[in-house]
Write a structure and sequence with these properties.
The chain contains eight helices and six strands, in the order βαβααβββαβαααα. It is an alpha/beta fold. The longest helix is centred in the C-terminal third of the chain and has 18 residues.
Length: 229
């Protein structure tokens, strides 16, 4: 298979990626959600890179050319800052695990995402913004494609020789977070209270434009979560 040339990968916030997903609900049927950790590159590798896209491009080269998988294996990559990088076309089956990719001509296959990091015990931790995006993305795919919880699969369940997404990542705990997130129902009043009492003072106390921009982004995320945007 000839590798698909990929020189540029878009990076999305979680809200932007959900908007990106919406048109595909009518174009493809995701049968499962496959959860992976990269092991390599690590979070440390990502932090050291001055050009973050080069990390994604290096994965693409390894998957598409060295492994001869035709493209980057995953549909999405979650970086340590919680952003989502685009990957393989959503219309194509992933290169997730032998016997579980469901390649077909009917656009029915799993959705696969990778989280950058080595999450084996004693290495790096899946936490913060990265964990939050992984949980929210899993929940969104389940909701948008009407999947039952049983269709969330860790890589190690499909390949017992792997610890992926990492031996420190407990599936029971991960599913509990997904379940809790799906039950979140934030009211406009609560969102506005958080914005007024917490984010607004932080905005005025911010020492740089970058900090103020991030606080503004977070306020808009709360407005979106409560249906105001």
């Amino acid at each position: 298979m000839m590798a698909v040339e990929r020189k540029y990968f878009r990076r999305f916030t979680f809200a932007e990626y959900v908007d990106y997903l919406k048109p595909f609900v009518s174009q493809v049927k995701f049968s499962q959600v496959h959860v992976h950790g990269t092991w390599k590159p690590t979070i440390a590798d990502y932090r050291k890179a001055s050009d973050k896209m080069k990390i994604i491009q290096a994965m693409w080269r390894f998957h598409a050319i060295t492994q001869n998988w035709g493209d980057i294996a995953q549909h999405a990559t979650i970086d340590p800052d919680g952003y989502i990088w685009e990957g393989r076309s959503l219309l194509e089956a992933p290169a997730s695990a032998v016997g579980y990719n469901d390649p077909d001509n009917d656009r029915i296959h799993p959705f696969m995402f990778e989280m950058i990091g080595n999450f084996d015990v004693g290495a790096e931790k899946l936490e913060g913004a990265q964990l939050a995006t992984a949980v929210k993305l899993t929940s969104s795919i389940m909701t948008m494609w009407k999947l039952p919880e049983a269709q969330i699969k860790f890589h190690r369940e499909m390949n017992p020789g792997k610890s992926c997404p990492g031996s420190s990542v407990n599936k029971t705990s991960f599913l509990e977070l997904v379940r809790d997130w799906r039950n979140v129902d934030m009211s406009p009043a609560d969102a506005n209270k958080i914005i007024s009492n917490w984010l607004s003072p932080a905005w005025f106390a911010a020492s740089s434009k970058a900090e103020r921009d991030e606080i503004h982004r977070l306020a808009n995320e709360l407005r979106k979560a409560s249906g105001q945007l």
